[in-house]
Specification:
The protein has 449 residues and is α+β, with helices and mostly antiparallel strands. It has 6 helices and 21 strands. It has helices at residues 9-30, 266-269, 327-354, 384-388, 407-422, 429-448; strands at residues 41-42, 62-67, 70-73, 78-82, 85-90, 95-101, 107-109, 121-126, 129-132, 140-146, 149-156, 160-169, 179-188, 194-202, 226-228, 236-240, 244-249, 258-265, 293-299, 302-304, 309-320. Helix 5 (407-422) packs antiparallel against helix 6. The longest helix is centred in the last third of the chain and has 28 residues, at 327-354.
Length: 449
């Protein structure tokens, strides 16, 4: 029998991480998804096929789908340099790399390049199932260039589509674009309402050689594990070296507030636990790697119905050499832009009301269709609003006996109501109303005591 004590737990966890990483890397190099049952269109070398925009599909590339008429390919590697930033995307694996470009246009990596860049990744959790967004996990992946950077596409069959946009913008008007705006859009491709959790691990490298590993607006140096749930004081996570720097902004403007941010050894952050378990003051070491730090971002869930979408936004500022990063000035600039846009929209809405323009009523059954995308009719779910209204079925309080005031009976009643409401296919609205009426009667009885 193997006895496990506290001293052996980190070793065991690290070994699990090693096996997990090795399996992901092995499958990623083979360019396949384990167990994937999604068909992707492959163009043979002897064929040239035009997409809906009339463009030719590159020989041997796989077309994942069209986005607003633009094809998304499982290309081997796509690169795009915009201003002082370079975006690299591996459409065949689902991984990415970010670079800062110095004055000589030399590309300085901001993240680790190990295992085809898969040590930095996104993960999606729906219900009890977690999907690491890489081709090795059975997720269909793709990538495409955009005018301002690039976009990764991840399709989890019959569950969700995740679009990750890397758009390079200016921090100041006279500077080359040097800020990466990361926009993560999650689309519910299932048939039911669900909660979609998202997290990202960034395997940083800049602060590992000379240190400090990280700093924030509140901490000048962070060289050990830490977990943060409030961001109004720390504001950002900074990682830098004499050659380059990156700054992950966590607070202000249109940034989506994370649920929790963890700094730790990259092997521990890659373990299956959805929110990493950190140990305060533990260094960024494991039995597999020394001084190997990373950032893990966990966001609050997106609550989405079928074909509904939600977005998460944050920014990564970059710099090279002796250039300084001024996050406060950048956040102030974005907030001014947002305020101006809101005022312009308010004025426009006011003008429409004055001229009494009535928008044309749209048929609720129509769904806008993107070129090349098949639209699946949404199944009508239970009317949550009608269920949340007070029941119209009367229930006599006097019929509530002592046995129904027992906490276990009340809990069983609540569980039954939740079970019925969550099963849209076989919901009995009358039964739900009856049970809610009984629950109200029990509450009234308890108040009388």
């Amino acid at each position: 029998m193997i006895r496990i004590n506290k001293s052996t737990i980190p070793v065991a966890l690290a070994l699990i991480a090693l096996v997990s990483s090795a399996l992901y890397a092995k499958d990623a190099k083979k360019g396949r998804g384990a167990g994937s049952n999604v068909k992707v269109e492959t163009v043979k070398k002897s064929e040239k096929k035009a997409d809906t925009t009339g463009k030719k599909i590159a020989s041997g590339h796989k077309l994942v789908e069209n986005l607003a008429g633009e094809p998304v390919f499982r290309a081997k590697t796509l690169e795009n340099s915009v201003g002082a930033v370079k975006i690299l995307m591996k459409g065949s694996v689902g991984s990415f790399q970010l670079y800062a470009l110095n004055q000589d246009d030399a590309a300085i990596p901001l993240l680790s390049g190990n295992d085809e860049f898969t040590s930095s990744f996104f993960s999606l959790k729906v219900g009890k199932n977690e999907y690491r967004l890489t081709d090795a996990s059975g997720v269909v992946v793709g990538a495409r260039k955009t005018k301002t950077g690039g976009q990764m596409v991840y399709v989890v069959p019959e569950v969700a589509k995740v679009l990750v946009g890397f758009d390079v913008i200016q921090s100041e008007p006279k500077k080359d674009p040097d800020v990466i705006k990361v926009t993560i859009e999650v689309i519910n491709r299932g048939k039911r309402y669900n909660s979609f959790y998202l997290k990202q691990v960034l395997d940083t490298v800049l602060g590992e050689k000379l240190g400090p590993h990280f700093s924030t607006a509140e901490n000048l140096a962070l060289n050990s594990e830490i977990q943060v749930r409030r961001f109004d004081k720390i504001k950002y996570i900074y990682s830098g070296s004499p050659k380059a720097a990156m700054c992950v902004l966590l607070h202000g403007a249109d940034i989506t507030k994370p649920e929790v941010v963890s700094l730790g050894n990259k092997d521990f952050l890659a373990l299956p636990a959805w929110v990493p378990e950190t140990v305060t003051a533990r260094t960024f070491d494991s039995v597999l790697s020394y001084n190997n730090s990373a950032i893990c971002l966990n966001w609050e869930p997106l609550e989405l119905g079928p074909e509904e979408s939600g977005k998460i936004v944050y920014y990564i500022m970059t710099a090279t050499g002796d250039r300084k990063i001024d996050s406060d000035a950048f956040i102030g600039k974005i907030e001014k832009q947002l305020k101006k846009e809101a005022e312009e929209n308010e004025d426009a809405n006011g003008s429409e009301e004055k001229i009494n323009v009535q928008p044309e009523k749209q048929d609720e059954t129509e769904v806008p269709k993107e070129p090349g995308e098949e639209i699946v009719p949404m199944e009508k779910d239970v009317d949550d609003e009608s269920l949340s209204k007070k029941p119209s079925i009367p229930f006599n309080v006097d019929t509530i006996g002592p046995e129904k005031l027992d906490p276990s009976y009340v809990q069983a009643l609540l569980d039954k109501i939740n079970s019925l409401e969550s099963d849209a296919s076989s919901v009995d609205r009358e039964e739900i109303l009856q049970l809610n009426a009984e629950l109200d009667a029990i509450m009234n009885k308890l108040r009388q005591q």
